[in-house]
Amino acid sequence: MSDVLIITSRNVVTSGGEFSLIKNRARALEDNWGITSDVVALCNTRLNVAPGTEAFGSGEYVRCDFMNPISLLSGYKQLISRAEALLKEGHYRAALLSGVGVFRYIGRLKRCVEGKGTLICADVHGYFGDGAILSRDEPFLLGSFHRLASAVEEFEQRRYLRLYDRIFTVSRAYRKFLCETAGCKYEQFYIVPCATGSVPNYSADDVAANRSKYRQKYSVDPDEALLVYSGGASSWQCLPQTVQLYQQIKSRIPARLLILSGDTATVRHVVGNVDDVLIDSYQPCELPEVFCAADYFIMLREDVPTNHFAYPNKFLEYVAAHRPVITTPFVLDIAEEIEANEVGIIYDGDMDRLLSSMRDFSLDPASCDCLVRQVSFGETLRPFVHDLGVGLNL
């Protein structure tokens, strides 16, 4: 029997953003404080994940077809029934619920742990309208499914979150939003972004060698500013706007743009006929070495609620590379971090101001490392660990 029971309808059987937050947080709890986790989760049969090969690892997985309403409803029934049985049988310190369709079961699950002192926590990964934004890039049927899921998520967050003992979310901005719109209280929240706190362990000579290696590979002249974008080509990642900004910068100063993505075909389609853009692909473990070649990173986002309340872990990857991040002001927590720690430049559409900031910018690597450490699991999980009654000195 473990200390924490994770109950989720999110995808933890294949790698991805949802999986990364849940798995890396569970790993941090165990590595830092010996707090172990069990998982009971829905598994979409359309993902074709064979039993025993789930990305999260050992656990209990309820298999159902997410696109078949009867199968999906049956899956939820089995998921919650099994969670109830585990909570009644065991002595968990906490239960963490996440995903569409599970928050409504707060009453049933609380009754299972009456008198046990178990914290029942909601694990809110992001804005309830994320599915509607995601659907813009999807075929009609899949997009309709995500729009419906978004509506369910909005109802559940507004109706049920206030009833939970504690609420995990990734940003201060979303905490404020939920307090204003869902009747939650500040003291209910743990602010825990997906942040492992890892930084490249390179010496000054290593950085210089990597920088020379990759700038030579891409024929970047010494006087050219290398702008680096790392990510996909989804509309919310603003790749066309990134290319447009690069063209504006290049018209004023010598510059090159390097796009690093696992989906180079889609990236080339989005970039179009801008033939001087460099496009390449690496394994995630190789990126810190390539990042040494950068002068600036670009992370633009639109002015929409999904971005207001997010905390992209890509930002921390950039900061860990000790290079300034050029970003828009719309990811609210990130904008605050940049202002407070001076690790980047906020681009508000004023090109003259941006170029002046780029010319005069001075980055303190110690500030970068401090920020990465402050938002790491090792720090942000401490209030949760304290509430579980586990010693923080472990």
Oligomer: single chain
Query: Number of helical segments?
Result: 17
For the biggest sheet, the summary is: 7 strands, parallel
* Name of the CATH class of the largest domain: Alpha Beta
CATH architecture of the largest domain: 3-Layer(aba) Sandwich
Gyration radius, in Å:
22 Å
Q: Would you kindly provide a written description of the structure presented here, covering whatever features stand out?
A:
Helices cover 44% and strands 15% of the residues. With 394 residues, it is an alpha/beta fold. Strands 3-2-1-4-5-6-7 form a seven-stranded parallel sheet. Strands 10-9-8-11-12-13 form a six-stranded parallel sheet, with helices on both faces. Helix 13 links the parallel strand 12 and strand 13. It is globular, with a radius of gyration of 22 Å. The model has no long low-confidence stretch (mean pLDDT 94).
Which descriptors would you attach to this protein?
six-stranded parallel β-sheet; alpha/beta; 17 helices; seven-stranded parallel β-sheet; 394 residues; Rossmann fold; globular
Secondary structure elements and their pairing?
Layout: E1 4-8, H1 17-33, E2 37-44, E3 60-64, H2 69-89, E4 94-98, H3 106-112, E5 119-123, H4 130-134, H5 140-160, E6 166-169, H6 172-181, E7 189-191, H7 204-217, E8 225-230, H8 239-250, E9 255-260, H9 264-271, E10 278-280, H10 287-291, E11 296-299, H11 305-308, H12 313-320, E12 325-327, H13 332-341, E13 344-346, H14 351-360, H15 365-374, H16 377-380, H17 382-387
Parallel strand pairs: 1-2, 1-4, 2-3, 4-5, 5-6, 6-7, 8-9, 8-11, 9-10, 11-12, 12-13
